[in-house]
Design a protein that fits this description.
The protein is of the alpha+beta class and 71 residues long. It has a domain of 47 residues. The protein contains three helices and three strands. A three-stranded antiparallel sheet has the order 1-3-2. Helix 1 packs across helix 2. It is globular and about 35 Å long. 13% of the residues are buried.
Amino acid sequence: MSCEPLINAKQAAAILNISATKLKRMAQAREVPAIQIGNRWKFRASWLDKWLNARVPSASHPCPSHFTEVP
């Protein structure tokens, strides 16, 4: 059981730097981890962090060769 609080779409959208409307559409399409309570979408920051890290290249997942570093 987690004690981490649920956050609303506006708060979650701020974390991802997208609009709350876009995030709600993504949640409805099951593109991001979320839970629907009534007609409201709720998120956990840790869910979003894990989801985002799985999609962003990192040291353990090097960028494809067509990407170059900018000095």
